[in-house]
Amino acid sequence: MPETLPSTPFQPPRRPWRTRLFGRPLATADAPHQTIGKGLGLAVFASDALSSTAYATQEILLVLAAAGTAAFSYAFPIAGAIVVLLLIVTISYEQTIHAYPDGGGAYIVARDNLGQIAAQVAGAALLSDYILTVSVSVSSGAAQLASAFPALYEYRVPLAVSLVAFVTFVNLRGVKESGTIFAVPTYCFLAMMVVTLGVGFWRYAIGQLGQVVDPPPLETPRELASLSLFLILHAFSNGTTALTGVEAISNGITAFKEPRSHNAGVTLAWMSAILATLFLGITFLAGHTGAIPSEGETVISQLARTTFEGRGLAYLGVMATTTLILVMAANTAFSGFPRLSAIQAADGFLPRQLTYRGSRLVFSRGIVVLAIASALLIVAFQASVTRLIPLYAIGVFLSFTLSQAGMTLRWRRMGRSLERPPKGWRWKMALNGLGAVLTALVTMVFAVTKFQEGAWVVLLVLPAFVFAFLAIRAHYRVTAEQLSLQHYGAPPQSGRHRVILPISNVHRGTLEALRYARALSHDVTAVHVSLDPAEAERLRAKWDLWGDGVRLVVLDSPYRLLLEPLLDYITSIADERQPNETLTIVVPQFVPRRSWQNVLHAQTALFLRMALLFRRGIVVTNVPYQLTEP
Amino acid sequence: MPETLPSTPFQPPRRPWRTRLFGRPLATADAPHQTIGKGLGLAVFASDALSSTAYATQEILLVLAAAGTAAFSYAFPIAGAIVVLLLIVTISYEQTIHAYPDGGGAYIVARDNLGQIAAQVAGAALLSDYILTVSVSVSSGAAQLASAFPALYEYRVPLAVSLVAFVTFVNLRGVKESGTIFAVPTYCFLAMMVVTLGVGFWRYAIGQLGQVVDPPPLETPRELASLSLFLILHAFSNGTTALTGVEAISNGITAFKEPRSHNAGVTLAWMSAILATLFLGITFLAGHTGAIPSEGETVISQLARTTFEGRGLAYLGVMATTTLILVMAANTAFSGFPRLSAIQAADGFLPRQLTYRGSRLVFSRGIVVLAIASALLIVAFQASVTRLIPLYAIGVFLSFTLSQAGMTLRWRRMGRSLERPPKGWRWKMALNGLGAVLTALVTMVFAVTKFQEGAWVVLLVLPAFVFAFLAIRAHYRVTAEQLSLQHYGAPPQSGRHRVILPISNVHRGTLEALRYARALSHDVTAVHVSLDPAEAERLRAKWDLWGDGVRLVVLDSPYRLLLEPLLDYITSIADERQPNETLTIVVPQFVPRRSWQNVLHAQTALFLRMALLFRRGIVVTNVPYQLTEP
């Protein structure tokens, strides 16, 4: 007769400091189901993509600098090529959004159409790129602050780590994605950028756009490289970081109001158009003001102070909103990473604990893992965007490729097998196919041009991740098989129950344990390991008095070992037992009032448990004996 | 009917890598009972005392340097005063040796005559000084090596730590104190010093003793201090480090051949005489060669290369034997510290585990504690003898004082109470009394003159140690009282035995645990914490099939907590139970084949055990279910 005890009334559990820090626990039923429109949707999902304009131009220039400042004129054509790529990726994703109205991240599309291995590759690529998104965005945010206030340059690493800590904290409290608060930074950033570009182009038109005053020194290599195809492709690779974040909307379709695919699609189109405009505009003006890529001052900062002729209020506004949107971009990863890792964990490729929602309904463990990993990267790379960039975006483009390839196969399958194939499936297949081929090419260009600078790390890490995912999956599968009740038949009958009671002395704790042991079975043997014959003799006398007739075995230990003779004895008893005979070791255990006092007692119970854990059919029971100090 | 199972034949346990590293385990019966004569005794016990001549002179000069090189002429008179002090301490200890033929360290003498608090103060003083002996001796050894080979100066910290590691390793293998091998370094050092001083004095006599060539630069403060009484007392304090180690023989009387008190006494007299000669000789020659105290080159090194006119074979011999005897001095502490801490642990003032002898019959835990503590000091003080010296010797002189004071009281008690008082007890009392007063004065001079430089640390650490010893003692006493079987009466009868079986799912592991639970009692309740009603329904259906009619309770957990609802339920059951009712929680526990796989499973069993450890009368049993991977 199963009974359910609902813990009525639903009192949230008492955990004062946690509540003060993270807010009161939320019941499962509290999960929000609010949806958002296009305007808010743009604000929520665009921060990752738009924020990359804060560093993409600079990273193009940095590569071109190897061939001297004259090569900077190639930046704009390269940006143009990247925008063409953006156009194709956007159209491809429009199709995905309509095909997967419940959310079509690369992982899900790959799993549905390309099989588990491809899905795991996509998962590994996305998870590692979420980590890099946090590291790169926050490092760039710290660089923007340091550009506005050069005194901060020295503290950029602790600054960046503090920003990560802040975003982590906000996410552990649980952020309502639908909050209007999210719209503010995005639209402020957009407004400031529109003003900057507007003023800049107007000045350019009337011939009053000046050159950057007092630019940071250009760090060129001693010998100038010639402007090779490799260099241009390398610059192109760096610039495509502008495309990171474009996939965000396809993951979050369910957040949109109905008709959600339509709304999400329109939002994606708007986002790409804005991204293209900002990126081209910034690159154009950076070229015509002679901005210099530098670790000390960002290109955005140079552009803004040239456009506004000084570090006035408008300049500070640009820097503040740029920093803010970069932090918001990191925040996007903080919702993407835990969600994806929960999906992968539910599929059995990551530790199952990642699927548990914490007291604030967020996947807290995933959040903590992301925070630690990205903070470690920031420290290791000293919060330098330029040093992080070679690792970045390979994962994004790999997942683009897998997603588009999956869509291509999907169209083919649907076109061939369905009775009424979707209209124009051949064209759609061709489009997704083109997207897949182009992004695959870009991925390979990345791997080649950035290999030496650090991309090799990613090429090692991704297969390692996939391998780990598969190993975890194999373990869960074997576990499930071994625990399965299929072919289990009737459980065997309980047979004899034998109890062994190791004792070091005869005292109240021992007698408590003896009483417990006798309640379990009539077949109890007390065992004492003797280091000192005289002491064993005293113990034997005491046992005669208090042992209630229970058999006592004394094991001599000439090498003064406590655990080993006991284990030998238990093993010999275990080896002799009949089928279905259960063996329980009852160990008296002191529990001192304060935990430091544990170091004053030999932790025999603990060691015994650890040593016997792997032996079949032996149960170790500790009978705690609590000390109550006055 | 108690039976003894001797593990015949006495096979040493199998532990291959340990045996290879530390040697085969030794049976308790193998403990050596060899005794040694005076010649070997001097070699074994004198290294600590004699080695301090390697740095005592230098540390006197270092203080005097504050008043300019002219003040160096005070070094010899100060050394003379220290030798007078040595004479009195030696005579006092001669009396102790005859009074305590079984070993009369300060701890034992204080415990017998002054009570437990004084004994604990002596224990704290001695233990901390053993640690400092290792740090100072090894640092000085490293400094001697760096004097001979200046390239090593940069590596003196890792060098010193490696020397500590080496001595630790040798001691963990177990050193036969009686080994002739110990005599070699001591007598080599003596021989080399006799030659050095002989040649030095001969050259001085014939007027050919030169000045130190190319001495290290003297680091004097910008403003010269005037030669105050404080300065002289400070120099005196530093110099009395020469007396550390004099007490070693009184601890080790049992190692001597019979008549052991006589033999030990003669050895002590010889040791003191040699120590006085070396110390005065070195100080005299250092003064007349113009040796300069320096971190870069030791005074011994300057003296040796001046005496032997260059860094030839004789010079290298002096440096090698000096380094060797300093390492031997550290080795002395490695036998003293573990032995004293075992005595204190047996008295209940330190964790009892320190009384266990390891597989090589040594107190391995004490050895490891000493090694870690002294290595930390070396790293913290960058292996600088000068920076360590202010902490040193206070403990030694405090223990001298307590030991002499104890002896004084002992003479008085024996003189007054015994029917036949020992001959001349008044004289002996007066002598020990004089020793006590003088060493007490020296201790106070230490505390005052070295206070600012670091002695304050010792004045904080010693009371903290004593406090910790007393807290440990109090805990053991309360434990013993509560475990005592006095007034315990007959154990209560076993009553009802209730079993709670938390389950997360129904699988083979669960059924194994269910079978075990039913073997314990007929009153079994299975409990499931439900995060998801649909899943709970599935579990309930499965339980109907497999649960063998056992009651199932489903606890709703709206806040997605696993442990808290379970603990609440267990607590409510525990609160309702009758007297003598036992409550056992049987927890099914996965045991994966490889330990990394544990991170893939929620460790409910572990957390439950930790949470229930402090509740009276609740026993937690894990029924392990081992997975066997193919």
Description:
Two copies of one chain form a homodimer. The first copy, chain A, has 630 residues and is an alpha/beta fold. Helix content of chain A is 60%, strand content 7%. Chain A has helices at residues 16-22, 38-51, 56-64, 75-99, 106-114, 116-148, 156-173, 183-205, 229-239, 248-251, 260-289, 299-307, 313-346, 364-380, 385-388, 394-417, 425-449, 451-483, 508-520, 533-546, 563-576, 604-612, and strands at residues 3-5, 497-502, 523-530, 551-556, 582-591, 618-626. A five-stranded parallel sheet of chain A has the order 4-3-2-5-6, with helices on both faces. In chain A, α2 crosses α8 (183-205), α2 packs parallel to α11 (260-289) and α5 packs across α16. The radius of gyration of chain A is 33 Å and the shape is elongated. In chain A, 49% of the residues are buried. Chains A and B meet through β1, α18, α19, α20 and β4 of A and β1, α18, α19, α20 and β4 of B. β6 of chain A pairs antiparallel with β6 of chain B.
